[in-house]
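SAMPLE LOG
Freezer: B-3
Tube label: C17
Construct: single chain, 358 aa
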Amino acid sequence: MIVSEQPPSLAHPSVNSEVLDDALGRLSSTAPEFAGGLSNHGPMVCEALAHLGRADAISPWLNSYVSRLEEGPGRGRPLARDEWARALGVARRYSDWAALFEQELSARPWADVVAAWVPRLLPGSMAAATHGLIRAAHATRALAEAEAETPERRCELAAGLAYWASQYRALGGAPAPSGTLTVRQALAEMPTVPFDERGHGLIGDGAVKASGMGGFAASVDALGPPPSVDGALSELTSAMAGWYLANCEHAPIAFVHGVTAPAALRLLLPYLPARAAGTAFAYLWQACAAIRSAFAVGRPRVDADVEPPGDEELVANAVEAGGAHAIKLTEACLRENALQGDAMYLLAAADAGRRLAV
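STRUCTURE (predicted):
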């Protein structure tokens, strides 16, 4: 069933609340990562809670989370144009990237900065297991839905883009979907990294390894060219919600990103040049395909007949669980379900609310 209206929990969120700006201000001095490579989810979760209409939960959640974070690096020097290419994917240049984006955001409208930089960064969408893209997308929505642009939201967009650029990570090959398969068919036929060859590295490591397998690039390109990027994103997020449910026992976090990353791209699409939309989808399709190839053990079931919880219950469960990925996945699933009603979204959110606690 196609849902024509947003569910009540998403209809009138408190996205303009000063609570969000206060939270972003508290987080502005924290590092983009902590504990040896874990992404700082604070800004993304706070923005997602605001969009779910739960601004009341932002401060309590942040109070319990912020103690884990590390102090950010000192202020950097804005990168010069001839340094950009060499600085992509260089984590120690994060503060220099942040200084560059702060400079650009002070000189021209934030939407122009997004339009100029997201296409440049898309080939490196596996940056920090797609967290660079996701953080930039949440920051973009916070600015887009603000009653007035605030320094806190502008600073957060600079930080999100800087994280993406400094962690930039490309997969093997340039994706060019030109076949005949649907998203579900193409995912089903992707080659799979043998279980005993997977290792125990980060999500990005597994995705890069998968993208180098023989047959991977051809399988990516076997997808049919999408007639509509919006429709293709719905196909992709719905299919990856099914792969999450099939693999949530052993690789839940990897498959969370299979939903939240393409859902984040949807937030950025309105600000991209029209010619960039198809390319943007291709890179997110490639990233999701790599996650499926690197981490899948089970395959989605088509015979599940379980009544999912309602939206308000899903939000309440995610907030109570407190896990960053539970909150972000729930927000993304409810947003995607509002566009294309599919029980897979709600079942995935329900599982995350139980499984991905603090």
